[in-house]
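Reopening this ticket.

The earlier resolution said the output was attached, but the attachment link was broken on my side. Pasting everything inline this time so it's all in one place.
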Amino acid sequence: MLPTRQILPMLLLGSFLSPAPLVADPGKLTINFDYDAANSFDQGRAAVIRVEKGQPLTGLINKQGEWVFGPAKNTEIHDFREDLAPIRQDNRWGYLNPQGEIVIPPTFHKARHFHNGLAAVLKQGLWGYINATGEWQIPAQFEQAYRCDKEVCSVKAEGKWGFIDRQGNWLIAAQFDDALIFDEGLAPVQTPQGWGYINRETEFVIAPQFDRALDFEDGVAIVNKGDEWWFIQPDGKPLTTMRYDSLMPFREGMAVIVKNGRYGYLNRVGQEVIPPSLDNAWSFSEGLGRIEIQAKIGYVNIQGEMHIKPQFKWGHSFTEGLAAVTLDYWKYGYINTEGEIVIPAEFDDAQPFHDGMAPVQLQGKWGYISRE
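Inline output:
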């Protein structure tokens, strides 16, 4: 969806910050520019790729830049969840721990992240669930399987969806055309009449009526009918009478809304803090929402006031108090939440900080800088 270019009068009347001065010099290079691709750090580890003799080699490094796993060919490493990361080697999936040990050998055709101690995996065309030691908690027997909450998993058998407990016993027989997970006591399910929400007793708390329905999160769920999207509450009542062309889940009490190609923000009581009038908007992070006006990136606060004026050609959302930005697409640096440049614009590309480190690129190679 391409937004039209219009100025937002209510924000342009707000207080703009003056051009950001250089005030500090964190951002020390702690891992050299040795990699052809670099992911964010998590639990003191980051997955990186180095190309040698035309062969991409994937591995895991620590904050000193030391290999704790690999580098290895034909390998793919995903993020850690519950101290385990899915790893693919030679088209089979297993799990890696932060120490670089493959604790569950790559024997599965597909593998999802661990949630609440269980992970859904595919073997010989059927899905089941394993525990953190790689043992089958629920043997492979399903056509599809979603992640489990603390008590219930949604699975597909004989063409229909239902719900099992963590021992594999059926709690709600497979009877739905589709089903997501239980969250906040309700699960979205699809019937010939549409999507609705059931409780653990298989009672429809919200009758099937939607073209699409998502999980409840923080007391609201996103639903759709035709070209209209809106939020509902656990009793089925809409959060607001307004309908939108698109919207995103709430983050930090604010949700991105889209109407007629324009973007804005809705708060948790259903008020349009910023009506759909922006060229673009992203979810809030650390108290600020990244917005775009006339091809420039800026940041607003939860009151809908301009906090850092639109002045950047591109910018990321804030993480760990900093955001990577560029004024010219050529060089990237970092600003703090007051819009002050704290790491000079000297990188060809820069990604958000996580775990005190950020991947940065120079002359085609990636390295890492520290937060302090």
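Reporter confirms the inline version is readable. DSSP finds one helix and 39 strands in the chain. The radius of gyration is 23 Å.
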